[in-house]
Amino acid sequence: MELLKERIKDDGKLVSKEILKVDSFLNHQIDPRLMQEIGREFANRFKEEEISKILTIEASGIAVALMVGLELDVPVVFAKKKKASTMDSKVYTGEVKSFTKNRVYNISVDSTYINNEDKILIIDDFLAMGNASQGLLEIVNKAKAELAGIGIVIEKGFQPGGKLLREQGIKVESLAIIDSLADNEINFL
């Protein structure tokens, strides 16, 4: 997606050779028009999948997932990093290790919102090591739902997450795949 790549080049900030900061348009301040285009692109890539729900993780995935849900006209469910007291007693859980925060989260979704009749599309902002996707896959599997695929806004192709998911036979669609962040330069595949 050329619009996204241009925005990453223009407004992305390199923190290190492994970390790209896109807070100005994706995961702190959000550009609604860009999110709308991203939502359309994912909807186009997954339109044949008969998706019944979008699943993401709080907080950065919600804006993207909402736009995809709007385009596909399906509900968006997000996994919470802390179980709320209002959640049903039965929840599906998964474990996620945050690459950037170096912390393990137990994420959860109330069983009311995902079940074995659902065909789920997972949406997230970044894919690096694949930990968030694996945690969301745990939830999909525990709910005995069907996985349609995974949509990622920015994939770090130089880290193993995308490869590991694809080796499992999962359809992964990434809108921008970064080959390298070395030498203070953003290079795409």
TrEMBL record:
5-phospho-alpha-D-ribose 1-diphosphate binds at A128, M129, G130, N131, A132. It holds the Pfam family Pribosyltran. Its EC number is 2.4.2.22. Pathway: Purine metabolism; XMP biosynthesis via salvage pathway; XMP from xanthine: step 1/1. Xanthine binds at L20, N27, K156. Residues 32-157 form the Phosphoribosyltransferase domain. The keyword Cytoplasm applies. The keyword Nucleotide-binding does not apply. It is found in: Cytoplasm. GO terms for cellular component: cytoplasm. Keywords: Cytoplasm, Glycosyltransferase, Purine salvage, Transferase. Gene3D superfamilies: 3.40.50.2020. It catalyses: XMP + diphosphate = xanthine + 5-phospho-alpha-D-ribose 1-diphosphate. One of its GO terms (molecular function) is xanthine phosphoribosyltransferase activity. Converts the preformed base xanthine, a product of nucleic acid breakdown, to xanthosine 5'-monophosphate (XMP), so it can be reused for RNA or DNA synthesis. HAMAP family: XPRTase (MF_01184). Homodimer. PANTHER family: HYPOXANTHINE/GUANINE PHOSPHORIBOSYLTRANSFERASE (PTHR43864), XANTHINE PHOSPHORIBOSYLTRANSFERASE (PTHR43864:SF1). This is Xanthine phosphoribosyltransferase. It comes from Orenia marismortui. The gene is xpt.
